[in-house]
Protein 1
Amino acid sequence: MVKICLDCHYVNAGGFVCTECSGRLVMVSDPEAKSLPDTVWRNQRVDYGARRGMIMRFTAIFAGSTTGLYGVRQSFGMTPPWSYVATAGSIAIGLAIWWTLYLAAARGVRVWILAKGRVHNARLVRAIVLAMLPLKRGRKRQREPRGPALVDSAARAPRDG
Ligand SMILES: [Zn+2]
């Protein structure tokens, strides 16, 4: 459950006291929260949107790989020419599911945030990039033979000029 601090507007994952300033927390649905300045809500939407997109991308990977692996497993029971076809087909379907959800996530985040919040573009982009960083960093480490320290500092460096 997400709660907002009335004093510093920091978003806490539940609890009664703010972890940043030990101020009082209210639920987002609380009438008291509605009186918070507009900027708080705008920032919330960016964070929510980015988080939502992240969850959806995770769901996409999960749904795609589960479907694909299930199909691959089932195809082991088939006779040789068809088992290969079924295996390839399962992987293709799994990838298609993943890609569809992945695109939907990107579009959903953009529509949801822009329609409701009319946020400054730079902030929106930064939030989405930050939400995707763990994925990118993981891939980078596999591909590039650089040391972890180098990769880390490169990933932490500001991207927008
Ligand atoms: Zn606080």
Protein 2
Amino acid sequence: MWLYLAILVGLYYLLRWHRERQVVSHLRDKYVLITGCDSGFGNLLARQLDLRGLRVLAACLTEKGAEQLRGKTSDRLETVILDVTSTESIAAATQWVKEHTGDRGLWGLVNNAGISVPTGLNEWLTKPDFVKMLNVNLLGVIEVTLSLLPLVRKAKGRVVNVSSVMGRVSLCGGGYCISKYGIEAFSDSLRRELSHFGVKVAIIEPGFFKTFVTSPPVIPMSYMPTFLVDAMTNWSKPRPAKAM
Ligand SMILES: NC(=O)c1ccc[n+]([C@@H]2O[C@H](COP(=O)([O-])OP(=O)(O)OC[C@H]3O[C@@H](n4cnc5c(N)ncnc54)[C@H](OP(=O)(O)O)[C@@H]3O)[C@@H](O)[C@H]2O)c1
């Protein structure tokens, strides 16, 4: 009886080890599209996946960013220009991805592109400030995902959305936290809808890393050069007259 029990326990651990190994095979047949590859996380991920042999389709906002990335990677990596706020740009990139991936579909979509400005006290910001942020960080993610979903479904792939710790705690005013909370909500419903089709949806919630979006001059300067002093002296008072 003890022998049978030991064999059962052994089989259980073997099965668990096999399931949790999470080793992806045939990397050279797998296509991954990453948005916002000009700099930061997107750029780093594109180079790392390329090194591992995956077929990286790197979406950059600018031709300069795309050219620089191509200069640092293998011939396998290809670039496309994509502005996630433009429906035409998304449609053109989707067609390009379709032509590249063919019957294989898209194994991975990483919605990484994002901005962090304008950020400031809510009362000091205007509706266009919120619209600008939400267009890139939230509606951009949604439109890119909806457009590429048929290709992801074909490959039984995965969608990875880059949220933030600020998708859990609203530490600052403006559209940034709202956009990241929105990504979390969108990802949660999408995950439930797509699990039946073998598609996974994941979110990444980085803390604070040294990239352009967190660069010290960027956030205060988005509002005005004297942001910090004004924030301290005018906290909870109306928007200062000199605000841009
Ligand atoms: N760094 C952190 O600590 C941190 C923390 C939490 C979450 N995140 C998130 O991580 C993601 C990547 O940010 P990062 O830190 O790597 O900063 P980053 O270096 O500024 O990367 C953001 C990328 O998005 C691109 N982009 C901006 N607007 C775009 C648009 N309309 N269409 C397509 N691409 C656009 C930028 O292109 P250009 O360079 O040409 O402007 C840039 O390549 C963002 O979603 C950000 O919110 C970062």
